[in-house]
Design goal:
25% of the residues lie in helices and 42% in strands. The chain has helices at 23-39, 44-51, 122-128, and strands spanning 2-8, 54-64, 73-83, 87-96, 99-111, 117-118.
Length: 129
């Protein structure tokens, strides 16, 4: 299953040349992951309060393939690649039409109080499988 999240490029997202600043792609994929988690019914505030854990990005491997520009309509596509007891690996793409502009593989883990590693809560593993 692929989650789709629309993005409009605003002037504030661009550099002096009207091209999306490279770090903003990371913001785009973060927004898409947050929307995807929310749409699955996972309440991250409740997860923190009830289970004592939060999601954290452990690793991002990214490829910048082409440039987005001011006022482009983009879409972030998110799909799950692997779920284990301790981590979630996702593929994310930022596309304009069918052209892939940015591709990333993101590894998410859970951490507890003080930043200690924690297992993904069982209910979340069930939702993601």
């Amino acid at each position: 299953m692929t989650h789709r999240f629309p993005i409009r490029v605003y002037y504030e997202d661009t550099d002096m040349g009207g091209i999306v600043y490279y770090a903003n792609y990371l913001k785009y994929i973060e927004r898409a992951r947050s929307a995807w988690v929310r749409e699955m019914g996972i309440d991250q505030n409740e997860m923190r309060e009830k289970d004592g854990v939060v999601f954290a990005v452990r690793r991002v491997e990214a490829d910048y393939l082409s440039s987005a520009k001011f006022d482009d309509e983009l879409e972030v596509r998110t799909s799950t690649q692997a779920v284990t007891g301790a981590r979630l690996v996702m593929d994310q793409q930022v596309v304009r039409g069918e052209e892939v502009l940015f591709a990333a593989q993101v590894t998410i883990v859970c951490i507890g109080e003080g930043g200690t590693p924690a297992r993904l809560p069982a209910n979340i593993r069930l939702i993601l499988h």
